[in-house]
C-alpha cells in the first residue's frame, strides 16, 4: 500500500484525492492525518518524508517519498495511464491551468495568514494579493468555456481546488455571481462523486484565528 500524508483541510491534498478517485487508485493508499500549519512548528512525521514540512506527501510501496502535489498527481496519472493528454498543445494548456490553479491556492493561503496578523498585516502585500486574485478570476472566467469543453486533466483539477478553497475559506466574496460561467463549470464538477467526496472540511481546532481571517472579506461585485 502507498501512504499519503493527508488532511481534509488542504486544497493541495484535495488535488491528490480527486486524482486518486478518478484513476481508481484510491484503494491502494492509506491516508495518515498529518497536521501542518505554516505558522506552527513543523510536524516531525511530515519532515521525515518531506524536508519542506508540507503536505501532501505520497510514500510509494517501495518507500519513495513524492512531493509536491504536482509531482504526486503526475506520478499517479502516469501509473494509471489516465488524465494525460497525448496532444502536446493540450498538455501544455493543462500544465498552464495547473500553474494557475496552484498559484491561486498559494495566494489564498498566504493572504489568509497575512490577514490574521491584523494591524501588523502588510497592506502592500494584501493589496497585491487582492489584485492578483481578481485578475486570475477574471482570466479564468474568460476560459470557462474551454475548461468545460476540454477533457478532464490535472489543470482543471487544480483550478477546481483553487475555486473550492475560495468558496470554503473566503465566504461572501460573491464570486459565483461575478463569474457565472466559471461558477457553472465548478458546480458541474462539484456534483461528480469523485470531486464531491473530497470537499475540504475543518476537522478540529482552526489553524489560524477564523474571526480575524474572515474580517472585512473583499467582494468581487458584479463583473
Ligand atoms: N506546492 C505545494 C504546496 C503544499 C502546501 O502548501 N501545503 C500546505 C497545506 S495546504 C502545507 O503543508 N502547509 C504547511 C507549511 O507550509 O509549513 C504542493 O503543491 O503540494
Description:
By secondary structure, the chain is an alpha+beta fold. It folds into two domains: 2-80, Glutaredoxin; 88-214, Glutathione S-transferase Yfyf (Class Pi), Chain A, domain 2 (Up-down Bundle). 57% of the residues lie in helices and 7% in strands. The protein has a four-stranded mixed sheet with strand order 2-1-3-4. The longest helix has 29 residues, at 88-116. It is globular. The structure holds glutathione (GSH). The site of glutathione (GSH) has 14 residues, from helix 1 and helix 3. Glutathione binds at residues 10-12, 36-38, 53-56, 68-70, 102.
Element order, helices and strands?
EHEHEEHHHHHHHHH
Uncertain segments are none
Number of contiguous helices? 11
The SS-based structural class is alpha+beta
Overall pLDDT, averaged? 93
CATH class of the largest domain: Mainly Alpha
Question: How are the strands of the largest sheet arranged?
Answer: 2-1-3-4
What's the CATH topology label of the largest domain? Answer: Glutathione S-transferase Yfyf (Class Pi), Chain A, domain 2
Q: Main β-sheet, in a few words? A: 4 strands, mixed
Quantity of strands, as a count: 4
Fill in the keyword field for this structure.
223 residues, Glutathione S-transferase Yfyf (Class Pi), Chain A, domain 2, 2 domains, four-stranded mixed sheet, 7% strand
Secondary structure topology:
Elements: E1 2-6, H1 11-23, E2 29-33, H2 44-49, E3 57-59, E4 65-66, H3 69-80, H4 88-116, H5 123-142, H6 144-149, H7 154-169, H8 175-178, H9 180-190, H10 193-196, H11 210-214
Parallel strand pairs: 1-2
Antiparallel strand pairs: 1-3, 3-4
Helix pairs in contact: 1-3, 1-7, 4-5, 4-7
The structure holds glutathione (GSH).
